[in-house]
Amino acid sequence: MIKKEDIDYYNHIAPMLSDRRKDLFDVILSQRTRHFTVILEDLYQKHNTSAIVRSCDVFGIQDVHIIENKYKSYMSNQVGKGSQKWLDFSRYRKKQINTQDCIDTIKNQGYQLIVTSPHNDSCLLQNFDITKKSAFVFGVEKTGVSEMMMSQADGFLKIPMVGFTESLNVSVAAAITLQSVTERMRNSNVHWQLSEKDIFYKKLEWMEKTIKSIKKVKERYYKGN
């Protein structure tokens, strides 16, 4: 349920943005989804992390889960083009090994865990069942997804390849995967859109990010109300 006081605050700050900007938010939010999400397990090259985050934004994925075991995650604005500003991140980095915390969170949220790997039991990308809520896991460069993640995966996914090279850069693999599954999702009967409540609060958040001196605006508003 959307709170009345939040609607009043929304109506207060809405005139501070152009209609064009608000309309753009509406269009983008109409294409956002939480039906799919992405997990990045211990990536260490910031251009790969940034490129995947950018692909999530481009293909409408709202949530990204980042596991930091050996390596800290960094974003490159040059590669990411500011896409991280519009997404929601869950970071797992309090322990020496944080993979299990992410797995537990994802499964408690009702997602199946899908590892992108040329595994013997891997499903071809074009045959993947897009009706189920799925979290796509992309592992550290070179060595890939951890054994802990592999052992608890609900399924495996691979991209068909017909050349001499048997692997793709992780950011390229993510982009290909997300483009395929989100396109088919949007042309299906799956209820993949954000809820009305999610759209309202996400738009409110984006509006705040766009308004300069929003901290002072909020202080004045709530002091007067």
Helix residue percentage = 40-55%
Q: Biggest sheet, in brief?
A: 7 strands, parallel
CATH superfamily: SPOUT methyltransferase, trefoil knot domain
Contiguous uncertain segments of 5+ residues: none
Distance between the termini: 21 Å
Briefly note the CATH topology name: Alpha/beta knot
Architecture blueprint of SSEs:
Elements: H1 4-13, H2 19-29, E1 36-41, H3 46-58, E2 63-67, H4 77-80, E3 88-92, H5 99-108, E4 112-116, E5 123-124, E6 134-139, H6 147-151, E7 155-158, H7 170-186, H8 196-210, H9 214-224
Parallel strand pairs: 1-2, 1-6, 2-3, 4-6, 4-7, 5-7
Helix pairs in contact: 2-8, 3-7
Q: Care to describe what's here?
A:
By secondary structure, this protein is of the alpha/beta class. The chain is globular. It starts with a helix and ends with a helix. The protein is 43% helix and 15% strand. It contains 9 helices and 7 strands, in the order ααβαβαβαβββαβααα. A 7-stranded parallel beta sheet has the order 3-2-1-6-4-7-5. The protein has one domain (31-192): Alpha/beta knot (3-Layer(aba) Sandwich).
